[in-house]
Amino acid sequence: MGIKIRKMEEKDIKETAELLIRLKKFNAEHDPLFTITDDIERNVNDYLKQSISSEDRVVLIAEDNGKIVGAILGEIRDRLFYEPRREIRVRDIYILPHYRKKGLGKLLLEELEKRVKGKGVDIITVEFPNENLLAHKFYSALGMRSLICVYGKSLR
User: Fold this and answer.
1) Largest CA distance in the chain
2) Is residue 156 one of the residues assigned to a domain?
3) Which residue in 101, 76, 92, 110 sits closest to 17, CA to CA?
4) Which of 38, 46, 95, 121 satisfies CB 3.0 to 4.6 Å to 116 for a cystine?
5) Domains in the chain, number
6) The whole model's pTM is what?
7) Residue 31 belongs to a domain with what CATH number?
8) How far apart are the first and last CA of the chain?
9) Is 153 inside any structural domain?
10) Cα–Cα distance between 64 and 81 in angstroms, integer?
11) In this structure, is the dihedral angle defined by the CA atoms of residues 145, 88, 108 and 92, taken in order, positive or negative?
12) H helix intervals, the chain
C-alpha cells in the first residue's frame, strides 16, 4: 500500500469534506437522531477550514497517488477532573470502501497518536454512533474499551 498520511491543507478541504459528508450520511441511515442538516456542506467546510489553524484540532488525510482516500479528525480536550488530564478525541474517521480492511484505519490512528504525544496528550478516545457495530469491533481489536455512554432522545 503506497499510502501517504499527512496533515490536511487548505487545498484538501473539498475532497476531505466529501469523505466526511459520506460518513455523516452513513450515520443518518442508521439512526434518525443523526439526520444531517440542509447546510451540511457549508458546516463541514467551515469546520475543516477552522481546523487548519486550530491548536486543539488535528486533521490527517490518507492519500494514494494524489487522491484522498481517508481522513481522521481529532480534538484535544482537557479532562478537567481526571488523569490523564489531556485526551485526543477522534470525532470522525472515514476510509473509502476500496481501502478498508488493509490496515489504513490503524495507520491513521497511530499517526494521530504520534502527532499529539508532544502536546501532553496521554489518552486517545473515539466517538461514534452506538449502532455502528463495525466501529465497536474495530476499536476493540485495537485494545480500546467503552468509557462512557451517552443516551439521547428527540424533544420534537
Assistant:
1) 48
2) no
3) 92
4) 121
5) 1
6) 0.93
7) 3.40.630.30
8) 47
9) no
10) 41
11) positive
12) 13-30, 40-53, 104-116, 133-141
Instruction: Give, in order, the Cα–Cα distances in Å from 80 to each of 20, 22, 55, 83.
Output: 29, 33, 18, 8
**Residue 1 above 70 pLDDT?**
no
Residue 155: inside a domain? no
pLDDT band at 118 (very low <50, low <70, confident <90, very high): confident
* Residue 25 lies inside a defined structural domain of this protein: yes
CA distance 80 to 77: 9
Cell of 39: 447546510
The residue range of the domain holding 65 is 3-141
- Using CA atoms, how far apart are residues 141 and 129, in angstroms rounded to an integer? 18
Residue 65 DSSP label: T
Give yes or no for a contact between 24 and 41, defined as CB atoms under 8 angstroms apart. Answer: no
> Cα–Cα distance between 7 and 72 in angstroms, integer?
10
Q: Give mean pLDDT, residues 54-72.
A: 97
Count the Cβ atoms, other than its own, within 10 Å of residue 40: 15
